[in-house]
Amino acid sequence: MTGSPTTPRGRRDRPAKPALTRGGIVAAAVAVLRAEGLEKVTMRRLAQELDTGPASLYVYVRNTAELHAAVLDELLGTIAAGSAQGSPRERLEQVLTAYTTMLLEHPSLARSALTARPSGPHYLNLIESLLGLLDEVGVAPAQAAWGVDLLLQFATATAAEHAGRETSSPAAGGEEWDALAHALHGASDRTHPHIAALTGPLLSGTPGERLSWGVRALINGIERTSVPD
Amino acid sequence: MTGSPTTPRGRRDRPAKPALTRGGIVAAAVAVLRAEGLEKVTMRRLAQELDTGPASLYVYVRNTAELHAAVLDELLGTIAAGSAQGSPRERLEQVLTAYTTMLLEHPSLARSALTARPSGPHYLNLIESLLGLLDEVGVAPAQAAWGVDLLLQFATATAAEHAGRETSSPAAGGEEWDALAHALHGASDRTHPHIAALTGPLLSGTPGERLSWGVRALINGIERTSVPD
DNA sequence: ACCTGAACACCGTTCAAGT
DNA sequence: ACCTGAACACCGTTCAAGT
């Protein structure tokens, strides 16, 4: 009654320990990410979650960075690139915004994606979509090829910038004066005339406005800048 | 003979332990960075270097991230923004290339700069230079203000991407096939026609060519894309 | 008031030894 | 052949207790 002859039985009727697989490890990692953030997605914690020792994970995953990249590719599956509407430029902006928005839910994942790029099926689909849209916009193929990198780097870096202040306090008052904003305000107009003249614009805009402007500036630049040779 | 009455004497005539200051901590951090890389610039290691306990450093530095930002500002002092030559566009490209080149010597510092932006005097000088050059190029002030952010983010992210493979092997053969390159080559032209058609361009270019093209594309986009309101 | 020893609560990765 | 316990070599940060 307690455990079958073919399954190792633990104390009582513990749910059968599933065989370790790469997919199982990544799935557990996604679950921990959603519940507690990337900081908790560690080899030791995952091993605990999967009822084994950390050393066992290294059979399926080269290191922590590779694991994080696999997690990101998994999350990429949740953004629907097909649902964008409007002109090619608008759809391009929508796809990049969706990608950035997803990353903004896990800025520390964006941070690690900058170093350990994903290369899974969902990332490939994203690149394919972007190349298709750039083609529709009329960007020359060679420029589109280099441009995709620029666009993805921008989106990833924009999200990564928010890592660290992830678990920030709910801002006791409203505006959180960061160190750079403070330094810009303090710049003397004798030594730093341009900063002094532009303090407002330097700090203006919501994150959404900045993102949208950045994407448009990038597309405008990409279509007008030819690659060497 | 061993120690003066006003200095605490250790065993033998150990060099007098200098008083702890923020500047001293940052200087020690820069020395360790140069000698052994950012991975070794830890609170514990610095405390050891300064002959005290890690807790003492927290009197002068809020946390590790803030320390890394201070280190970057210090290094920024070594890039001479004034030595650029040529047209404003060329000088702009030179300043950004110098900044990126410096960061590429310490990619992990770039990585942390993305999250904990520096805000020291040298960073302010860099922003001032860039605003001045954008003005000379003829970029509208409001666009220049948002553009500086884009340019610095691009330079920083470009360097940050190289973190991790910092202590990579000297490439046993020549080209190091990373996972993404491999995935792009493997893409089917039925499911990913654009990738299949552009595999060459997607992977072409030296890092230097990519950087230079990126800076030019960014400037072209910034000058042509007006900010909202 | 200022400083810090010691502790708390963790990490990634390796490898010798088991099955 | 495959898997893993235990160890190695570290971390950041806090706080009670000292001077």
Describe the structure concisely.
Two copies of one chain form a homodimer. Chain A is mainly alpha-helical.
Topology:
The structure is a homodimer of 229-residue chains.
Chain A: H1 22-36, H2 43-49, H3 54-57, H4 64-76, H5 88-104, H6 107-115, H7 121-137, H8 141-160, H9 179-186, H10 193-203, H11 207-224
The structure holds a DNA duplex (19 and 19 nucleotides).
Number of helices of chain A: 11
CATH architecture level-2 label of one domain in chain A? Orthogonal Bundle
How is the main sheet of chain A built? none
Q: What's the average pLDDT of chain A?
A: 87
Strand content of chain A: under 5%
Specify Rg of chain A, calculated over alpha carbons.
23 Å
Query: What do we call the CATH topology of one domain in chain A?
Result: Tetracycline Repressor, domain 2
Succession of helices and strands of chain A: HHHHHHHHHHH
The name of the CATH superfamily of one domain in chain A reads: Tetracycline Repressor, domain 2
Helix/strand structural class of chain A: mainly alpha
Any idea of the CATH class of one domain in chain A?
A: Mainly Alpha
Biggest interface and which pair forms it? A-B, 69 and 69 residues
Poorly predicted tracts of residues of chain A: 1-14, 167-176
DSSP E strands of chain A, number: 0
The assembly state of the depicted protein chains is homodimer
Residues in helix, % of chain A: 55-70%
Shape of chain A: globular
Distance between the amino and carboxyl termini of chain A = 74 Å
